[in-house]
Amino acid sequence: MRKRYIKLLEHLKQSEHDFVSGSELANLFDVTTRTIRNDIKEINENYLDKAIITGNTRKGYKLVGDLSNLHQNEDDYEERAFHIIKALLSQTDFITYEDLAKNLYFSTQTIRKDVQKLLQTIQAEKQNIEIEAIIFQGIRLKGSEVEKRILLKKLVTADCLKRMSLDEALQYYFGDWFNESAITFIYTCIEEEVARYHLLLSSQELFSICVNVLISLKRVELGQPIAAQDMRLDHTSFEELRIARSILNRLTMELKTPFDEYEYQYLGYLLIALQILPKKNEGIEHEQSNEIEAKIKAVIQNVGEQYGFVSYKNEELFDRLLAHITKSLYPLKYYFPVENPFIAQIKSEYTNAYNIAVVLAKELQFCLNIKIPENEIGYLTLHVMGIIENSQETRKRIAIIYGKNPLVGKLLERKINLYFPNIKIDSLLANHEIHLLPEGIETIITTSEIAEQHQLQAQNIIVVSEMITSEDMKNISIQLNRGLLKYYLSPNDLFFLDEDQPTDLLKTLTELGDIQHLYTSILEREKMSSTNIGNLVAMPHPFDCGDNKKLRVLVAINKQKILWGDQMAQIIFLFIPPKNQKVNNTKFFEEIYDVFKQTNMTEKLLKITNYDEFLEVWSSK
After folding, report:
1. What is the pTM of this model?
2. How many domains are contained in the chain?
C-alpha cells in the first residue's frame, strides 16, 4: 500500500469518525482534491475489507468500520519490488528489512522473499548491479548507476494509464519523491520541449520519458549522478541527443538541477530505445564507426544473400537498416529496455520477415557481443519487410487454362483482373498448350481437368466451371489464400499428439518426422523469441536448414493446450527451411496468418481426425 494511503487512513481514523473535507486532505498531502477522490476510490476498491470511506458532497469524507484487517495482496510482487528498489534508491546508506517492511506495510518475511527474488532476477540477467546484504546493517543496491535507474524504470508499468491521466500516474508512482505541483511542472516542461520538435508521441511514450527524467532528477539531487565508471561518453550527434539536451537544459534553468553530458547521453539513449523519430538514414558520427559498420554490413550482406535479397535494388533500404542497427547499439549495450507496442502484431502479420529478423539478430549478437531483445527484433522486422517487398514481384503469378473455347478463357481473365488486382496473369492457354506454361507460375486456374497434374511446378491448381459463376469467384478467392499448405504438407507429416510441455512436443515431433538433428536448433530459435502467433497456434522452426528441396511443414494437433511462450497453443506448424534458403516463402506464412484470423478455424481443426479432413477444413469458407 502506498504511503499516502496509509497516512490518509490514519488521519481519518484520528478524526474519530467525524467528516474531513476534501480540501483539508488535499492541503495536508499537497495534492489536488481530484487526487484525493481517486485515492479514496482506490482504497475502497482494493484495500478495505471491514471498513469503508464514505463521502458527502458538503461535509467531506468519513471512515466507517474496522481497520484491523486491511487487505494486502501478498501475490502483488511487482508493485512491492518497485517500492523496494525505489526505497533503496531514495538513500545512499543501508536500510534494514524491518524498516522496509514498516514502510511498505508488509511482513519482514514477505520483504525478505521479495529481495531474494529480485536478487535472482538481477543475477539471471547478468546485470552490473547487486543487492549487498550485511548482518546488522541491512541491504543496499550497488553497481552501475545506469542499470540501477533502468531496473526501477522496468518496474513501472504504463497499464495505470488505462484508469488515470498521465500526471496522476506520475503522482501515483513518485508522489513521495515530488509533490503534485512539482510533478505537473516537470511533465509540462517535457511536453513543451517535445512539442518544439514536432514529435507525435503516444501517452505511453511521454509517460516513459517523464518517469526516466523524474528518476534522474531524484538521483542527481541525492548526489548520485551518472559518472565515467557507469557510461562512456560516445560523442554521438544523433537528433535524440539534441532533444535530450533541450529537455534537461530547460529543467536545469527552472529547477537549478545540475545535469551534465552523462545525463544528456543517458536520456538521449532512452529516446533512441523508444524509437520516437521517423525512420530515416541519418549520418553516423562516432569513434570506431568504420569498424562497427563493417561488421554490421557483413552480417546484413550474409543474411541478405542467404535469403535472396537483391542488393542493387535495395541499396537505400540496406543503408536504412544499417543506420538503425548502428544507432540502436548504443542503448542496447547498456541494456536500455526497448519499447515496442506493436510487437504482437508484427510477429503475427509479418511472420516470414520476423523469422529472418531473428536470424539477423542472432548473427549480430554473436558478432557484436550484445543482447538483442524481442522488441528490437520487431523493429528489425519492419526493415526486413520493406526489403522483401522491394525485392520481389508482390502480385501473384497466375496462368489460365481453358478447354476449347478461347472466349471462356478471355471472360475468366477479365473477371479475375476486375476482382483480384493483386494477381498478374502471365499466360492464357488452351488445355493442349499446357506445355508452353512459363516457369515460376504459382497458381493455375482452369476450366477443365488437367492430366498429370503432378508434373506441373505450380503450387496451386483451382478448377472452375466454364460459366464463371459468383461461386467460382469465391472459390478462387479462398483457394488463392489456402492452396499453398497442400503443396508443402504431406499426409505423412500430420500428427496427433498428447504432450504437456513444448519441449516434449517438439522432441516427439522431430522424432516422428525423422529430423531429430534439428531439435536443438529449434529450441535455440524458440529461446530468441516465442513463435506463438495467437489463436492457439505456434509456428516453431530451426535456425538450420533441412535436407528438403522445398519448404517442409509438419503439423501437430495436440490433445491439450500447453503454454507456449506467454500464450497457450494446441496446433503446431513446424516448418523446416529447405537447403536453398533463397527460396522465399512469404506467401506461405501469409496464408497461415490469413486463415487463423478467423477465430473459429482453430476450433474446426481441433475436431479433425485425418489428413483429408484437415485439407477440407483448411479450404472451407
Report:
1. 0.71
2. 6
